[in-house]
Amino acid sequence: PPRPAATSVGELARRLAAQLEAGMQEETWHDRPCVVTCLADLDDLDRTSPFGRAVAEALGVEIFRRGGRVVDIRPGTAFRLRPRGGEFLLTRQAAELPPAVRVPRAVVGTYTAGPRTVGVTVRLVDLTDRRVVSAARVEVPRTPDLDALFLGTEEPPPTAYDRLPRGGAAAK
Question: Does an H or E element contain 112, and which?
């Protein structure tokens, strides 16, 4: 029987990690360390959202739980940290990374939000030759909890105590 749809970031990450692991042909999580980067908006690959950051965080945890060697890159300089964005891989050449954060693999991905569903695609990429080691795709129904992660990245989502003018933005 088909599995019920994932309705949380945690369940989405579990399914993505399971697909990535199942898709590995000759390697395992244990073989080589990886970094997990924030997911990018498919319509603007230089942009992410709280959703993209939350899925990346949860996916890193799931890979670690499955025995993966996950390297935390935030303290390093090989990745660009953007306000209200996240870390984005600046180089696809592992040899160009500083020794402190040199890793052979990265989990990269995108998301796209439709009217009823959110699709997430991730790839485990070998940074030495740009080969895709594994790929995964999960589509989930939009829920109020997931939608809250897409509401503007500039301000927090409105609450029941905010007055909404006719245009829809919360009045201050």
Answer: strand 105-113
Phi–psi pair at 51, nearest 5 degrees: -65, -50
120-143 pLDDT tens trace: 999 999 888 888 999 999 999 988
Q: How far is CA 92 from CA 46, 49, 76, 78, 105, in A?
A: 15, 22, 16, 11, 10
For residue 100, being part of any structural domain is answered with yes
Q: What is the largest CA-CA distance in the chain?
A: 57
Domain that holds residue 42: 9-148
Residue with the two structure tokens 């006719």: 166
Judge whether 153 lies within some domain: no
Position 158 in a domain: no
pLDDT at 157 over 70: no
First to last CA, the chain: 49
The answer to whether the CB of 45 falls within 8 A of the CB of 171 is no
Domain holding 64: CATH number? Answer: 3.40.50.10610
Three-class SS state of 92? coil
Residue 26: the pLDDT is 77
Instruction: Give residue 139's pLDDT.
Output: 94
How many domains are there within the chain?
1
pTM: 0.72
